[in-house]
Amino acid sequence: xxxxxxHDLRGKTISxxxxxxxxIIVYAAVLHIGLLWNIVNRVFSxxxxxxxxxxxxxxxxxxVNRIERFFTSLVFRRKPHPKLSRMLSIIxxxxxxxxxxxxxxxxxVPQVISSMKSVVSIVTKSVPRTRQDFQNMVENATIxxxxxxxxxxxxxxWDNAADQLTKRxxxxxxxxxxxxxNVLSIAGSIGNGVYRVLFNALVGLxxxxxxxxxxxxxxxxxxxxxxxxxKRPSCETLIHWARRANNIFAGFIIxxxxxxxxxxxxxxxxxxxxxxxxxxxxxxxxxxxxxxxxFGPYIGAVPSILFLLLVNPVxxxxxxxxxxxxxxxxxxxxxxxxxxxxxxxxAFWIMLxxxxxxxxxxxxxxxxxxxxxxxxYAIVRTVIxxxxxxxxxxxxxxxxxxxxxxxxEEKNTGx
Length: 415
Hints:
415 residues
């Protein structure tokens, strides 16, 4: 049967049909965005153990490769045993990492609990329990007198707050049954959440082992599908950018973990030397929040300074000065030395990516937004530079500061 569409219009007709179909799909997705988002969340929730396993394997891969090279080049140099070398390297890696984590928590948890008890005790002693305690605190506070606040005004505020609290407590006693049911519901939700986290962590740990064992085969299968579905030039371009993404993410994430560990250790040692309170607790906070680029140092410094203000305001002042110096050293010396040029973004783009990533995906978004944006930035820059080159225009950004005047002069001079 002869096609009713002329041969010279077939390509344009098919393109129009595809555009219309895509438009209908997008329109339907917008109308049912809530249902679509629930489906996406459900898929991510089910696949979360695999994501965790991939993250574990991705982080441990450099250590596994180094240990495997040691076995291949030294232990099994005369008679290679690739499977045995791989299994031994994976087993040793997991034993080392789990031993380090166990030792870290055994050393950390008791001291953190002790520090938290001390903070709670200080807060409890600082908060007045009775009206007389509050009056004594107000009368002894010289700063309140300097601000011109009268004792009678503050005592009136205390009485109003006490009356409101009494009313709210009486209302809560009326709804004690409902409150008890809500508490039990919250406890059940917490229990389910803990169970889910432990289950995802265990399955992810097992999955990461299989990913590390058969990583070449998984990559080969992905490339096989790519070559089967896409044209060869497109597939090779995709492989190139996948390798580039691996270099960016691996260099940034692993480098940031090492950098944060070094910053935490330096903070702990210096706090011990200067005699600042809660050295281990504060160093852990500083080290963990340092994983977040740009905003991390400030996020970790704020609660640490608040802790110290409860104990010793002078220590809080010295710690604030110390943390500013430490972060300058990290940003200008330690960070660039470890991370190198894996990111290649200015401070503005880093701040923008963290703001957007943190707003959409929370803590994980704040950590992963920088390498993600760095990859997108590299792709866009490559495409733009290639198009400029095809048009005979310069690729350097500095050449466009005075454009179009400079471009016109270059064209007239034949450059």
